[in-house]
Fold this protein.
Amino acid sequence: MQDAPDLRAALEAKGADELEALLAWENFARPDQLPPPGKWTLWLYLGGRGAGKTRAGAEWVKALALGRAPLAEAPAERIALVGETLADVRDVMVEGPSGLLSLHKPSERPSFSFSGRKLSWPNGARALIFSAEDPESLRGPQFHAAWGDELAKWRYAESAFDMLQFGLRLGQRPRQLMTTTPRNIPLLKRLISAPGTALTRATTAMNEANLAPTFLEAVVGRYRGTRLGRQELDAELIADREDALWRRGDIEAGRVREAPELLRVVVALDPPATSGPDADACGLVAAGRGAGGEAYVLADRTARGLTPAGWAGRAVALFHEVSADRLVAEANQGGEMVAAVIRQEDANLPLQLVHASRGKQARAEPVASLYERGRVHHVGALPELEDEMCDFGLGGLSSGRSPDRVDALVWALSALMLSGRGEARVRGL
């Protein structure tokens, strides 16, 4: 890498055209911020907060208006800009720090009339601004291209999107870009799988170099791994299964940063019947009960591909890590073998073997009821466990796999809250 004085001298030696080419967006944008290859008609950009999706949208519109290769094949003379409200279009898409007016050199910068609801470029290209609050305003105008921002927040998303489609009728191949932080709305789910959609995802962490350290510490640090964080930071589209026993809202409502002093702690083990890469996972969950009679889920250490010695060692390690009082292990498959491999790791560990006499759903329903009543709290984020919980319904998981994390959770919370043994902390039982 060149030293700063050498780099400055090299830049000063270049002409204006060379410098402009060097600083072109496509030379320093992340790959996800550039238009995908192929003959797509909709570029759907799902991005976390601060991931750079507004800059990507504004740079694409700029390239279209000016006909700048390689982002555009030819100038697009008529462009639609659609936001949640007209104020959002102005404040974010046009005048914002990453908006259109901030990206042009003076000779190419468009003029903007908010009252006239349009941007006008010196070359004759125009962009009209629209509010998704008024879908009917999109009836009539026609466009070569469109950029819609925060689609998942539009109050009348279906109607506004439909009206926009009727207006995309100019040129050989009208295209549109939708930038949004995902939310579980039917339109977004439909567009993700629609023919002609090119899907891009970007997380907040991918743009951390351009974000304030305090934001990264206070916001990213607090919400990482939670349902809200996975949606707003990691751009994940998270949906509840309709017949699931657990709801993400109940889990989120009970989430805490740390547990209080616990009267009793258990580790629950749901060992796989076989070993190897294709075997079921070994469910392993730790939970405790506080003085107020509420439960706290402390850890999920479920893992796949373990040998009996491997899962026994993992269970014993978690037992000592959380200073547990008892290890509860399902013994329907393996019987005394489960006890034997645990004893090889720690001969004095308090162990209780449990046998399932009812089906998985029948055992899980009383535990799910505890969540509905606000009696269970997750300490921090346990995303893989929570995903499995919210996908467990009639007939099990939608994938057909064994719900190993859920099984371990159910055993742990049953031992603490439903067996009558969670009243006092007694070691060595």
